[in-house]
Design brief:
595 residues; TIM Barrel; 2 domains; nine-stranded mixed β-sheet; binds magnesium ion
Length: 595
């Protein structure tokens, strides 16, 4: 299907918006009146710019407060409309959006509304323009799609149809099945937006908190299925009012937007990218660091052994159980920074995984980083993390490494339990949609975590058996402090033994305040001495109906720390309840470290 996006959904000047929409592969745009008013270009120049970019102008919006008003007001409205129709002709736009009136002088009279809209459509038809009438959720007398359709039907004018907007329909809890009673050729336009499910005034909700389909809690795909059954063949168009998008770089937002429409089409059963290839495990996590020494000491204390070295590059493989950490000192590294830069995902079909990623607009990386390397399919996640799709057979990336002599690793750590990736400010919803759509992972609910200096949002994505878990987190404000670091959580069957060996080997555990343990004693029953052990080692504890989670943290190196984690097999959490204590402890540790 053709795809379109409203210029109001993107940031920047009109030219920047149009360029971003075209680059992301949209077929057309809705031009929002304020974007046109603020543009230095004449309507003809905008039209030419769109044509150069391969974009059609699918809609001009909006005309407001037109219908069911006193006669003298309506006469003024028609004059205003004529100006706009002349402008639209210069712009090359053939459909205008008319929102249901919010004017206090509007009267509750469907026959009058139908008469006025019919007169407006007469005038529009003289210009070759169609009028799409949309019920705003907060319209004064017309606020539901079926009501707007009854008025359009009563007017019976060929140049008058309705515009459906998923936000206005689903935000009011209207039943979208009634859409199928509208003839498809009378649905002149379809605007799509999702939104989280909060309780707030619907106008505020609409103007500030809409998001792209799949990023909120509304069943947009279900609504689209109803619309398609009517025979509607216009574009799927995104109209998203969101304060964050208004501040974000338009190019990235446009890509995020089009990815959401590609996913929506898959979910609505229209068309879609190649089927997802869900990863089956972590092959490795790769850390970049300017100085391998502190990491080597930490990994050694955790019981890892340096088992192999890359044949051509300064990259060491550290291994314990099935947990594999690459330490790379060769790549260009920010001065401050040890960071988690790449993730190897075990995939039953690496080439298929890469094809889906590419179809969903993920930047594809070169298959070889150096001429001698084994070829690997890889893409970049929105936060810049490189995701490698590694086959499940031996060889592959491991063939680039040569075994080195080493003492045996400990046996405390079994595998990587999860990776926590901090997302750039403004890109949290994009990251969740990316991991869900590109990797076929399931997204869990977003949780808010209080930090001493703000609020963190966290959302986990995982595969069905939990062998791949990624926690996506973002702070409430742009920040570059190292507390909001990435981490690698290592699964162990005995966190007490693992923490002891780490501490006894000189590893720095994150100290946890005594008050936390007093509270734990009040919340849960423990065996004799159990809590004292946790207190001694800084082990945090959580329990739900599925079992317990015990975990502790190392100090942070650059932008990365490690977690030792013992989960009862049915426990699917990440210790969100303990996160405020952990964050406060990390802030305190950072302060004591003098930076
Ligand atoms: Mg709308
Ligand atoms: Mg964690």
């Amino acid at each position: 299907m053709r795809t379109s996006i409203a210029t109001v959904s993107l940031s920047g000047s009109l030219t920047e918006k149009l360029t971003a929409a075209a680059r992301a592969g949209f077929d057309g745009v809705e031009i929002f009146e304020n974007d046109l008013l603020a543009a230095p270009l004449a309507p003809e120049e905008i039209r030419a710019r769109c044509a150069d970019l391969g974009l059609t102008v699918d809609l001009y919006q909006p005309l407001r407060d037109i219908e069911a008003v006193p006669a003298e007001v309506f006469a003024r409205n028609l004059r205003r409309a004529r100006h706009k129709f002349e402008l639209m002709r210069r712009l090359g736009a053939d459909t205008v959006l008319v929102c249901s009136s919010v004017d206090p002088s509007a009267v509750d009279d469907d026959a009058l509304a139908a008469g006025h809209l019919s007169e407006l459509a007469d005038l529009a038809a003289d210009f070759g323009i169609r009028v799409a009438y949309e019920a705003l959720a907060w319209g004064r007398h017309v606020s539901t799609y079926d009501h707007a359709w009854r008025i359009v039907e009563a007017a019976g004018h060929p140049a008058l149809g309705t515009c459906l907007d998923s936000f206005h329909i689903l935000s009011r809890g209207c039943d979208p099945r009634g859409i199928e009673d509208i003839p498809g050729e009378k649905i002149f336009f379809l605007q799509l937006a999702d939104a989280p499910l909060p309780a707030m005034d619907v106008l505020q909700w609409s103007r500030h908190h809409r998001c792209f389909p799949g990023q909120g809690g509304l069943d947009v795909a279900g609504l689209v299925r109803h619309v398609l059954r009517t025979g509607y063949d216009g574009p799927l168009s995104l109209e998203v009012f969101n304060d964050v998008f208004r501040q974000s770089e338009a190019g990235a937002t446009a890509v995020d937007a089009r990815r959401s429409l590609l996913m929506l089409q898959e979910e609505a059963g229209v068309a879609g990218p190649p089927a997802p290839v869900v990863p089956t495990g972590f092959a490795f996590a790769e850390l970049l660091t300017p100085d391998a020494e502190p990491l080597a000491a930490l990994l050694g204390a955790l019981g890892f052994a340096r088992t192999a070295r890359h044949r051509g590059k300064p990259v060491d493989l550290w291994q314990q159980g099935e947990a594999r950490i690459l330490v790379n000192t060769g790549a260009a590294v920010r001065r401050d920074g040890t960071r988690l830069a790449a993730v190897g995902l075990e995939s039953p079909d690496p080439a298929g995984a890469a094809r889906r990623a590419e179809a969903l607009l993920a930047p594809v990386l070169p298959r070889r980083r150096a001429p001698g390397d084994a070829p690997l399919d890889a893409v970049a996640a929105p936060d810049g993390t490189e995701l490698f799709f590694c086959g499940t057979r031996p060889g592959g990336w491991r063939a680039d490494f040569e075994d080195v002599e080493h003492a045996p690793a400990a046996t405390d750590v079994r595998h990587i339990d999860h990776l926590a990736l901090t997302q750039p400010w403004h890109h949290f919803d994009e990251a969740a949609l990316f991991h869900r759509s590109v990797l076929g992972l399931r997204a869990e609910d977003s949780v808010d975590v209080a930090d001493p200096y703000g609020l963190l949002r966290s959302r986990a994505v995982s595969n069905a058996d939990g062998s791949v878990r990624i926690a996506l987190t973002v702070g409430a404000a742009p920040t570059d402090d190292t507390v909001h670091a990435q981490h690698i959580a290592l699964a162990t069957d005995d966190v007490v033994a693992a923490a002891r060996r780490f501490r006894d080997a000189g590893g720095p555990l994150l100290p946890i305040p005594a008050n936390y343990y007093d509270d734990l004693a009040a919340r849960h029953a423990f065996a004799d001495g159990e809590l004292d052990t946790y207190r001694e080692l800084g082990i945090l504890y959580d329990r739900d109906e599925h079992g317990a989670l015990r975990h502790c943290y190392t100090r942070t190196i650059g932008g990365v720390f490690f977690e030792l984690l013992q989960r009862d097999s049915a426990h699917r959490g990440y210790g969100a309840r303990n996160a405020p204590v952990r964050l406060a402890a990390q802030h305190a540790a950072q302060t004591h470290a003098g930076g």
